[in-house]
Amino acid sequence: MPDLLLELFSEEIPARMQRRAAEDLKKLVTDALVERGFLYEGAKAFATPRRLALHIAGLPVKGQDVREERKGPRVGSPDAAIQGFLKGAGLASIEQAKIESDPKKGEFYVAIIEKPGRSTPDVLAEILPGIIKTFPWPKSMRWGAASREPGSLRWVRPLHSIVCTFGPETEDPEVVRFDVDGIGSGDVTKGHRFLAPDEIRVKRFDDYAPALERAKVVIDTDRRKDMILHDAKDLAFAQGLELVEDEALLEEVAGLVEWPVVLMGSFDEAFLDIPPEVIRTTIRANQKCFVLRDPNTGKLANKFLLTSNLIASDGGKTIVGGNERVVRARLSDANFFWKTDQQVKLEDRLEKLKAIVFHEKLGTQYERVERIAALSKVLAIGVGADPALAERGARLAKADLVTEMVGEFPELQGLMGRYYAMLQGEHTSVAAAIEEHYKPLGPSDRVPTDPVSVVVALADKIDTLVGFWAIDEKPTGSKDPYALRRAALGVIRLVLENSIRIELSALIRMATENAAKQIRSRPNALVLLGQDPDPTNADPHEIDEFLDVDMRVVIADQRSLRLEQGELRADLNPKDYTTLHVGPKSRADLLSFFADRLKVYLRDQGARHDLIDAVFALEGQDDLLMIVRRVEALGRFLDTEDGKNLLAGYRRAANILRIEEKKDGRAYNEQPDLQIVNDQGQIEEKALAVVLDGAKREAAAAVEAEDFEGAMRALSRLRQPVDAFFDKVTVNAEDPALRANRLRLLNSIREATRTVADFSRIEG
Question: Is 645's pLDDT higher than 80?
Fold first, then answer.
């Protein structure tokens, strides 16, 4: 089967764009081919700093022939209908159509349309120019004289040439001819920019890749990565050192070179007094180099590895020397920052946080630190941390944001704070909290275990969530600019992986109270409360009850905004002021957001989302650890025969109740009359009533004791009497009182199961 080779050769492709661009090219071309009926055996895309390439194997020489029967008008139809049919079917006269008969509709015309399959090169020449002209680069440019024309080609950097060949392995492939803004397709490419810049004529992919390799171009990114990693490890081993691996840096460096050559440089040992993370970040960020360490001590060595795109005639001495000079200068800067920062204590830097705005509606970083510290002090008691240490850790957590080092390398925030805290003699837990309060940053990131770190991390994330919920900046669809989903998942992991018992609603309420008090204490601020969305309807006498109403806080200058007879002046527009939503509705919505994040977390752990819904549906379920344990116990119970049968019995009871309550226009939620059961009930009915009463009380007691397995065992006793009841007892008895009592008995089944979960939310 023939193969397609496509190469788009340009001035440069930034490393960060290469992977995505290669996948986009493959998807766009293969989707277009499949859409036109051209199936293939396999496709792979490649990228280097100068070219995108695509190889599609097993394409047909031409598309399939098409034979279509198109039904036309009845024989004897008006001429206009006949002419329209002929035009649509591509027939010259009606004699070219055949006549078919239908017992009901009579005789009608049918056109047989046969279209030979189009050749694959013709189809490629049709689809490729459009794909190239509309290629989805994140950033692109126009160039040259053509750039003045509307709709001219945009590419990431100037596009120089296009290779496009198609043909079978046994024959010379043909060049698929097309033109994109004056750039014609051909079969000529170029090798390495410096090592082999001459033109190379290629045929198919099987000789394209080897020809490029002879011209010092490795087309496969993963192979370039393997070459760099292998050579780096060998060079390190030869010096008795170990490579500090960095997958992200390796990916980036592989995108900067077409022919990787790994070289070793060094720097002054005196720089090793700088924290190793700073050395690594400096060398990585500025020179894209790898650092090395002593495998015996684990400490960094004063050597680094760089990846050149050249085989230098001097063995790389000039390249290494240039990199060493830059590294020396950058490490000198880092050393200056390191020593300068130590001259000012962290607490003395807090005043500068007043000049850093966290968010225009949520105040400065200093105000945020005040909120986090207050929350940490109270939260520490429930987590088992020292309140004083927790408060201290929270107050210093953001201080390193105004250090020289973090100003230069923002990715070191938290880490530098820990170093400076240790140098000034802070408690180890305080220092750890400064670094770890940002964690976990993602699903694979480590979760802090030190109680002080856990407290400050929780307080930081809860304050963030409460704040952005208050200003109605919630995640929407795929957009989450403030990483609130990550913050909520962080809270969940901190709680669950440290087995922390905490009432989430109380924690949210506490954070809300801190924010509200802080805003009320601002000079020239006016706090208005009320259920009505319009702040002008607020009752000023409700100010001290701000947590018990759907509060709105309006920040305004009291000199220009004042109360007159309990209302705002009519000539002032409340829309001109900042409004914070911090009432019960907002808090309930945030709890619901946590429930959604918990579902995602537990689903990734293998739990069923419907069981989470079933537990969360119960009022007051906001202890994340207990929710998870209850979900786990419920899942195990429903996997047993008792659980499956009880669920089936519950559904039968719930369905009957729903139908009868709708028919009767009333709910049967009263307790069943046991006198009626004893006097008129059947044996199975009496047995169910007795077991229901005991199981409900036993399950409730077990839940109260947080013995969820015990609660499930109690409910399992309902299985046999429920089955027997439905087998032997007619619910809709002729006696109205007996019927109503039996419906109340069914409601008792529903209520008994609600001691552990809302069974109506359980699927399957």
Answer: yes
CB within 8 Å of 742: residues ≥ 6 apart: 672, 685, 729, 731, 733
| 354-363: pLDDT as tens digits | 999 998 888 8
From CA 462, how far away is CA 256, in angstroms rounded?
41
Q: Are 142 and 248 part of one and the same domain?
A: no
User: Could you tell me the CA-to-CA distances from 408 to 246, 281, 285, 286, 401 in Å, in that order?
Assistant: 21, 10, 11, 11, 10
Mean pLDDT is lowest, of 47-51, 95-99, 540-544, for 540-544
The dihedral sign for the CA sequence 632, 635, 641, 643: positive
Closest by CA position to 469, among listed 597, 620, 591: 591
For the CA atoms of 536, 540, 544, 548, the dihedral, rounded to the nearest 10 degrees, stands at: -40
Domain annotation covers residue 612:
no
Q: What is the pLDDT of residues 129-160, one digit of tens each?
A: 999 999 999 999 999 887 888 888 999 999 99
End of a domain among 568, 585, 602? 585
Which CATH number covers residue 729? 1.10.730
Categorize the per-residue pLDDT at 582 as very low, low, confident or very high, splitting at 50, 70 and 90.
low
Residues 144 and 233 in one domain: no
Neighbours of 101 (CB within 10 A): 9
In a domain, 330, yes or no: yes
**What is the pLDDT averaged over residues 156-166?**
97
Helix axis angle for 708-716 and 683-704, nearest 10°, is 180
578 falls in which pLDDT band (50, 70, 90)? Answer: low
Q: Residue 155: exposed, middle, or buried by beta-carbon count in 10 A (0-12, 13-18, 19+)?
A: buried
How, if at all, do strands 357-359 and 98-102 pair? unpaired
Phi-psi map region of 176: left, alpha, beta (phi>0 left; psi -120 to 50 alpha): beta
Which residue type occupies 719? R
Q: Which of 201, 222, 196, 183 is nearest to 48 (CA)?
A: 222
**Domain end (from 195, 214, 233):** 214
pLDDT at 524: 46
3-state helix, strand, coil in the chain (%, to 5): 50, 15, 35
Kindly report whether the global pTM for this prediction surpasses the value 0.90.
no
Element (H, E) at 297: none
Judge if 486 and 473 occupy the same domain: yes
| Cα distance between residue 302 and residue 280, in whole Å | 11
Per the structure, the complete domain to which residue 132 belongs is given by 3-61+119-214
Residue 613 lies in a domain: no
In a shared domain, residues 260 and 150: no
Name the residue among 642, 764, 607 with its Cα closest to residue 712. 642
Lookup: tokens for 455: 């407290």
> Domain holding 529: CATH number?
1.10.3210
**H or E segment at 100?**
strand 98-102
- Of 209, 208, 193, nearest to 308 by C-alpha is 193
Q: How many domains does the chain have?
A: 5
Does 603 reside within a domain?
A: no
Are residue 199 and residue 297 in the same domain, yes or no?
no
Residues 323 and 394 in one domain: no
DSSP string for 33-79: HHHTT---SEEEEEE-SSEEEEEEES--SBPPPEEEEEEEEETT--H
Judged by average pLDDT, the poorest of 168-172, 268-272, 491-495 is: 168-172
For residue 440, say if its preceding peptide bond is cis, omega within 30 degrees of 0: yes
User: What contacts 605, CB < 8 A, 6 or more positions away?
Assistant: none
380 and 320 fall within a common domain: no
Same domain, 148 and 274: no
